Amino acid sequence: MGHKYSLLTLAVCLAMAPLHLAADGFSRGFAESINQALQERRQREFERELLERRLEHEREMLLLQQSPPTGSSVGAVGFPVFPEIDFMGGDITESGIRGVSLATCVQICADNGLCQAVTWVPEMSWCWPKGRGYIRQINEDVVSVQLR
Fold first, then answer.
1. CA angle 47–86–67, rounded 5-degree value
2. Beta-strand (E) ranges in the chain?
3. Distance from the first to the final alpha carbon of the chain
4. Are residues 30 and 89 in the same domain?
5. CATH number, domain containing residue 90
6. Residues 33 and 79 reside in one and the same domain
7. Count of the separate structural domains present in the chain
8. Which of 81, 93, 102, 107 is the most exposed place for a label (fewest CB within 10 A)?
9. What is the rounded CA–CA span in Å between residue 38 and residue 87?
């Protein structure tokens, strides 16, 4: 942006400045500029994180599209994959497991003797290990894998 000082340095200086300086228009305008710049930076960071998650989702979906949609394999694990099919119910965990890839989700299930399948939400990297009692439902936002 061409600023000589980082936004963090300016924010710290502003926070340490005497309060009476904020009473004049220049200082108040300066404080508002700093706050706006910080808000814009947070928004850019949020958008970058969202873009990274979307790219990860696209990479996972490309891997799935390289083989037939049903009965294909996930990496070296080799289990049937069901894109856009949600295995509803039968959750082993109360709130799923966040922040994991599809391959990690499948491995978590494979390591758990009670787990029969998983449903993975790519946009949120959210894994839902499944035991007995799930039903299949169409949902374009998920990928499910049947292990047993």
1. 80
2. 81-88, 97-98, 117-121, 126-130, 135-146
3. 55
4. no
5. 3.50.4.10
6. no
7. 2
8. 93
9. 42
Quick one: how far is CA 72 from the chain centroid? 24
CA-based angle 102:103:107, to the nearest 5? 115
What are 11-70's pLDDT values in tens digits? 555 555 544 444 555 566 777 888 888 888 888 888 888 777 777 766 666 665 554 334
Average pLDDT over residues 106-112: 90
138 residue type, one letter? I
CA distance linking residue 143 with residue 140, whole number of Å: 8
Cβ atoms within 10 Å of 38's Cβ, excluding its own? 14
Residue 2 lies in a domain: no
In a domain, 82, yes or no: yes
